[in-house]
Amino acid sequence: MNILVTYDVKTETPEGRKRLRRVAKTCLGYGQRVQWSVFECSLDPSNLERFKMKLLKIISMDEDSLRIYKLHGDRENAVEAWGLDRYHDFSDTLIL
Amino acid sequence: MNILVTYDVKTETPEGRKRLRRVAKTCLGYGQRVQWSVFECSLDPSNLERFKMKLLKIISMDEDSLRIYKLHGDRENAVEAWGLDRYHDFSDTLIL
Question: Chain A: nearest CA to B87, how far in angstroms?
Fold first, then answer.
């Protein structure tokens, strides 16, 4: 399942900056950073559940925002990207 | 069609900060801000094309990143939101 995770973490306090680092680190373990606070992930339902639980333990419900979008169908049909594009499709054949 | 627009604009220069303001202002005209640089929009294909063209005229292809995701199916099935949620469904009946 192709998943998009986006977040806003309030970073006005040291605790907020710590949460931001932890959210980003957790996301890096499950997907690819495509923008500063946007990650694309390809996950089965159980990994998605695990990922989500980790994020929900980190964020502050009163100060931060976390959104998870399910992208149905092929990734190529669901996304258009312009400008800097950090995404690399690891399911493609790697040509060396 | 439900659309998600996400962007990173490089704001280290006055030109970049101006681009950021213009991108945000354009997005506000077409959808709802759900996070700092994430907007949800409900657009028909011609409005989506117009919106996209406006954004592409503003961003710097070398410095910024713009992504547009198409969310297929019902919005409710495509998105999960935690913490602060700015989204308001204007297609719902308004109870006063």
Answer: 11
Tokens 């354009």 found at: B26
CATH assignment of the domain containing A27 = 3.30.70.240
Residue A11 lies in a domain: yes
Interface predicted TM-score (ipTM): 0.88
Coil, strand or helix: which one is A6?
strand
pLDDT of residue A75: 77
Is the pTM for the entire model greater than 0.95?
A: no
Contact A35 B69 (CB under 8 A): no
Contact A60 B83 (CB under 8 A): yes
Q: Residue B62 sits in which domain range?
A: 2-72
